[in-house]
Amino acid sequence: MVVAGCTHAAREERDEIVPLGLVLRRLHRPPFASLRDRPTGSFPILRAVQTPDFFQERPDPVVAPPGYPRAQAEGIWAAGDRIVWLSALILSLSTFMDWYAGSGVGVKLAVIGWHTGVLGKLVFFIGFAVVAIIALREAGMGLPASAPESLVILALGAMATVFVLIRVISIPDSVLPADARGIGIWISLLAALGLIAGGLLRAAEEI
Questions:
Q1: What is the pTM of this model?
Q2: How far apart are CA 189 and CA 158, in angstroms?
Q3: What is the DSSP string of 79-132?
Q4: What is the phi-psi region of residue 140: left when phi exceeds 0, alpha when psi lies from -120 to 50, beta otherwise?
């Protein structure tokens, strides 16, 4: 009986002995470690939060449908092109109008621009060249990028203006006695100035 009692007492004493390492771990454990280690499902106030995805595609904002703006003129019907090709066509045709007029003994004379010498013929070919440039551009064969079309038109318009002004100021001796300026030369001058204006508009549109 004495032996059995001693054995039982030693067993109870042994069960009450706690390892030193376990005691130290419990002492150094944070007070809220148990709460952190537990799943959030056991605490209704701590619910899982979804992290926002900043790279998620957002739907496009609803934009009110635009109105019906007026269609812009394009191609040959743009403002600059319209002025250029009309001026070039009129310039070429004006060389077959009377640049000079006069009267002799019982007869009236009219001299067309083509018959006023080299300058009259050059004015015709300038107008024809501008029409050809526009026609080729519309057909898909434009000028190279190193030669802007607006600058070429401006140069041709300036040349035509100078040639017509020379014929306005100086009447060639070959057309005498037709020593009065006819309406055709003034039409040529306006057409040459129209080429310059159209070239400037084309340059503004290209910028």
A1: 0.60
A2: 11
A3: HHHHHHHHHHHHHHHHTTSEEEEEE-SS-EEEEEGGGG-HHHHHHHHHHHHHHH
A4: left
Please, are residues 110 and 193 in contact by the beta-carbon 8 Å criterion? no
Q: Is the pLDDT of residue 15 over 70?
A: no
Phi-psi bin for 120: left (phi > 0), alpha (psi -120 to 50), beta? alpha
Q: What's the pLDDT score for residue 1?
A: 46
Q: Distance between CA 68 and CA 31 in Å, rounded?
A: 71
Domain boundaries, the chain: 2-42, 78-206
Cβ neighbours, 10 Å, residue 125: 14
d(CA 95, CA 88): 11
Tens of pLDDT, residues 68-108: 443 444 555 467 888 998 999 999 999 999 999 888 777 78
Fill in the amino acid letter for 19.
P
Calculated CA dihedral for residues 176, 180, 183, 184, nearest 10 degrees:
30
**Are residues 160 and 197 in contact, defined by beta-carbon separation less than 8 angstroms?**
no
| pLDDT value, residue 24 | 54
Distance between CA atoms of 104 and 25, rounded to whole angstroms? 134
